[in-house]
Amino acid sequence: MSCIDTRKEWMGLLARAPAGLLAELCAGLGSEPGFAWLRPPETGGVMLRGRMGGTGAPFNLGEMTVTRCALRLVDGGAVGHAHVQGRDRDKARRAALIDALMQTARAEECRDRVLVPLSTQMEQQRQARAARAAATRVEFFTMVRGED
Q1: Where are the domains of the chain?
Q2: Coil, helix or strand for 137?
Q3: What 3 state SS string does 8-66 have?
Q4: What is the mean pLDDT of residues 98-122?
Q5: Which of 9, 47, 84, 91 is the most exposed place for a label (fewest CB within 10 A)?
Q6: How far, in whole angstroms, is CA 132 from its chain's centroid?
Q7: Which Pfam families does the protein's record reference (predicted)?
Q8: Listed residue (115, 11, 108, 119) closest to 69, CA to CA
Q9: Within 10 A of 69 (CB to CB), how many other CB atoms are there?
Q10: How large is the average pLDDT for residues 64-74?
Q11: Measured in whole angstroms, how far is the alpha carbon of residue 79 from the centre of its chain?
């Protein structure tokens, strides 16, 4: 399980989370808190850039569709942001709500009910994929022949 102490870590976790799993875990928090949109969910594209070896000249890798939004909680005024891959507006809204709630007194509740189970389940899925890939691994070896 990864550490979820900084905003960068929980924002990354929420962005990578499967939409269905995030919806299921957010339902465990009870009723959704009141909020006002600062930026309603909108879908657009971003250019992905890369570098060879991490130090080479940047190059355009391709485009990716993202949905972003920003909201402010009615109680306390905490602001939540989200950028998620794809066109899922509900996932972006949920991610922004969790981001905002993590800046309030409900942070521990959100961490325990959403972020930790999400991190655990995603890690289990990653390990299962790695195990399936490892099962197909082929070991090559060379036998030394005594002929010269």
Answers
A1: 7-128
A2: coil
A3: HHHHHHHHHCCHHHHHHHHHCCCCCCCEEEEEEEEEEEEEEEEEHHHCCCEEEEEEEEE
A4: 94
A5: 47
A6: 22
A7: PhnG (PF06754)
A8: 11
A9: 21
A10: 97
A11: 18
